[in-house]
Amino acid sequence: SPDVLLDHMVFTIEPGVYLPGQGGVRIEDTVVLLNGRAQSLSRSDKEDPIVMMQSGPHRA
Description:
Layout: E1 10-13, E2 16-19, E3 23-26, E4 29-34, E5 37-40, H1 49-54
Antiparallel strand pairs: 1-4, 2-3, 4-5
């Protein structure tokens, strides 16, 4: 991509896992670029997405 990330830009990283017939889950991290380094603004625990899917629906 020709896009350039600059200090103080905020973006999200959104990996996802999808299982046929079972659905999927996306885990989103919000990140800010400060002094050339990415700093996460998200404070969520990252558990195994497959375990999350198997434990049933979650509400935010």
